[in-house]
Amino acid sequence: MNAPSAILHNDELREKLLKPDVISGSDILLRSLLLEGVDCVFGYPGGAVLYIYDAMHGNSDFNHLLTRHEQGAIHAADGYARSTGKVGVCIATSGPGATNLVTGIATAYMDSTPLVVITGNVVSSFIGTDAFQEADITGITMPITKHSYLVRDVEDLAKTIHEAFHIANTGRKGPVLIDIPKDVSANKTKFVYPKEVNLRGYNPTVAPNKLQVDKLLKAIENAERPLILAGGGVVYSGAHEELYEFATKARIPVTTTLLGLGGFPSGHELWTGMPGMHGTYTSNMALQNADLIIGIGARFDDRVTMKVQGFAPKAKIAHIDIDPAEIGKIVKTDIPCVGDVKTVLQLLNEKLVPGETQAWIDHLNKLKAEFPLRYEDSDTELKPQYVVEMINDTTKGEAIITTDVGQHQMWAAQFYHFTKPRSWVTSGGLGTMGFGFPSAIGAQMGNPDRLVISINGDGGMQMCAQELAICAIHKIPVKIVILNNNVLGMVRQWQEIIYDNRYSHIDLAGSPDFVKLAEAYGVKGLRASNKAEAQQVWKEALEHDGPVLVEFVVRKHENVFPMVTQGNTIDHMLMGDAE
Amino acid sequence: MKNSKHTISVLVNNQPGVLQRVAGLFGRRGFNIESITVGESEESGLARMIIVTTGDDKTVEQVSKQLYKLIDVIKVNDISANPSVSRELALIKVNAEPSQRSEISTLVDTFRASIVDFGPTSVMVQVIGDTEKIDAFIDLMRPYTIRELARTGVTALVRGSK
User: Fold this and answer.
1) Residue B15 contacts A where some CB pair is shorter than 8 Å
2) What is the pTM of this model?
3) ipTM of the shown complex
4) In the 3-class helix/strand/coil scheme, how is A379-422 assigned residue by residue?
């Protein structure tokens, strides 16, 4: 398994941590996290984790960032994990602390983000008595965790933590929860950190079945209109180079899903853009006309396939995925390849014989030229797409972009041209508002040398705005962008198109002055309402060496196109030309 | 695809919460559970669950794959795809005036069931067999008026050395 290993490399510290001292559960937790290579933990204290926070006091080896809400902590851990490939860690207290993590856990679960989530719980003997701040968090999160533990004995703690890290960051990655009752964090035992993990019921398939690989090679050789559907699995498996080799050697066009963005260089002649509900015309038509679709670390999500009956009607489907349960779940699969994406692609690359695909590539390139993503620019109103293009141009597609959920997310996906993987942090599966800004804090903590830009709407920004405090205090230089259209834009768009202009509860009048809000926290705030201002303040923001919030006041009635409405196949796109 | 009954054997770590993990998975993925039995297995630390579910082949394949994703699940086996033995036990309390007892006793003997308790105006019958046999026996008991009925659900093993 090639999970990015973050094992601590500082030998001196390692030796100190591994000493078999008799220590408390809290010290075991901190030492174990350090041994797993954790360099930043996001959290919020409370009654049930007081021993843990007491152990942090004066511990200069351990780096903890106090957020202002547990949801901010877990989204930050998520942004850290997605942008680094390492396990993100957050800590919260029992009861409300733990339940405030639920949205973040579900977000990570849907998008296969490796997290280890630590919660405190009430004293063991109080569990089940409806004690103060008691919640059955392992029970509550069972459907949204890859695995969970309620640690009943301090003797089990070190082993549990080691297992949790292994489970979180191998196979199909995901969040693992460790619930630690208060007495377990207080009790003492001799510290022994296990070297190995032995889990009988957990052996992810890494190497694929050779027969299926051969079958796929044959299909590639015979295909005239093949298409690669590359998803988040390419990025998570670190297989972007293998994918590049595969696509260019086999001469197969690539469409990257929302989570797959960055897994293949945008702008490459073989790249068709994103598919699905707000995908490019070329990607959607390519899916509908392909004779072979090779899904790679993608799960044929309903926002990609839209109406499944009628999806890719002419194609043979090959599916490469580490999770066997994804194969055949949504679409009938002709060639299943269960295995780690990187390993499978390496095998394929060894024996690849390209088919006759040039006519197909030419055809798709013609479509790309004829039906590019476009918007009607304006000299009187600032267009959100213009802002994203400006951000793209000024950063050459090399920044880490985090987003919230809604129209701005789709525009960022459409108009930011990612050049490398682990540069795109967005809640795809769960579609979590409030994710965009705190996830940028985590991404910046994990990538101190990269430019991190968080693109948000005026709605989502208000769901986790309190974390501005963290940026200010720790001078975390995230560039916070708000595309302010004074409305819940995506809901407005649906109400306009599908609900006959019946606009119900979407007006965000009464939102704060975002510039003043930033300044109230001690963060620089800027605003632009036209193109000239936009260029000027954005330049100023990029030159500012600390955190900065830039509010772009954009056109309210702008819609995201193309758009496929629900119940239609993906070739039925509203192109927005009538507007 | 055709819906049919499947008996699935699931070998799991005998841990607190494991029943909740398995049953919860069935519930949230929309797989139905007709019966579920849990007990210790041949190996200490492991429990065997026998789950009877209805679905087409695709659903049963998804059930199996989703079960395997649970860390505490060691092995999943569709028993009904193999020659197997499946058994269920039912306890049935029926009205029985002393005059009716010999009549009931004849039915009990025919089904190789047994009377395990007598009350002043009732008897309790224990019957073991596959689901069809128990259904048939219960139907025969209905005319006497069934006061209470408890069934264990199916447990099963594949035949032979497999």
Assistant:
1) no
2) 0.96
3) 0.93
4) CCCCCHHHHHHHHHHHHCCCCEEEECCCHHHHHHHHHCCCCCCC
